[in-house]
Amino acid sequence: MGLTTRLIGLLTLALAALPLTAGEYAVLRNGYRMRVERHESTENGTRLHLPGGGWVDVRDDDVARLEPEEVVVAPLSLAPVATLSLADIVRQSGRRNGLDPDLIHSVIAAESAGNPRAVSTKGAAGLMQLMPGTARSLDVSDVFDPTQNVEAGTKYLRRLLDQYDHDLGKALAAYNAGPGRVDAYNGVPPYRETRDYVGRVIRSFNAKKLAANR
After folding, report:
1. Interatomic CA distance for residues 89 and 110, integer angstroms
2. Is 43 annotated in the active site?
3. Cβ contacts of residue 92 below 8 Å, gap of 6+?
4. Catalytic residue from among 37, 67, 70, 111
5. What are the φ and ψ backbone dihedral angles of 78, each rounded to 5 degrees?
6. Per-residue DSSP letter, 190
7. pLDDT tens per residue across span 97-113
8. I want to staple 189 with a disulfide (CB 3.0 to 4.6 A). Which of 22, 111, 142, 185 is the partner?
């Protein structure tokens, strides 16, 4: 047995002897399920601590239950774990779903300002601010995971573009306000928030294309 093999064996035994603390899943009454490191009671309700830092404060009655997470010990590997940058994630999702990466970046900027842990008051979460129902329909298991969030958001925007015959204004309005409201008004609904959102994304997208062509 060589030195490297003995070292891996010793490290594996040492890791197995360490006490491992699992996270948990918070299941909200609106059906949304999110992974958290831990929770604590506060004066205003329950504070859910997110993986990697940050937290979300919710009311006690918004939490249906807390589920323990099973601990899975991964095999020890001496190879470094490769991580993708946001630009790589966006580029790959754009290629898979036939969307311009600049458009995806513009939506991310308008939705979350690039914060992967952003949570809106309506429950939308992550880089592309997925609503719980949308995340479930697109098989997202961790809405705060940038790869899953961007892939699902890109796929959803692609569907909306196809649904509205590639009318970008309508697709973005549906992304922001929901397809039902776009259908009801046969176009961008007369909501200031939605109209500002559509204009902001399109202006950002056009600016990126102009800068690329200089």
Report:
1. 18
2. no
3. 84
4. 111
5. -85, -10
6. S
7. 999 999 999 999 999 99
8. 185
Residue 53: CB atoms within 10 A of its CB come to 8
Report whether 25 contacts 33 (CB < 8 A): yes
Task: Give the separation between CA 62 and CA 34, rounded to whole angstroms.
Answer: 13
Q: How many Å apart are CA 92 and CA 159, to the nearest integer?
A: 17
Least confident of 42-46, 166-170, 171-175: 42-46
Tell me the CA end-to-end span of the chain in Å, nearest whole number: 61
The full set of domains in the chain, from first to last, is 22-70 (2.30.30.100), 86-212 (1.10.530.10)
CA 26 to chain centre: 16
CB atoms under 10 Å from CB of 94, counted, come to 19
Q: Any idea which residue has 């559509």 for tokens?
A: 198
Please compute the mean of the pLDDT values over residues 11-30 and round it to a whole number.
55
Largest CA distance in the chain: 73
Looking at per-residue pLDDT, the higher value among 161 and 51 belongs to: 161
Beta bridge partners of 67: 25
Q: Which two tokens stand for residue 43?
A: 């004066």
* Residue 200 to residue 121: CA distance in whole angstroms: 20
This model's pTM is above 0.70: no
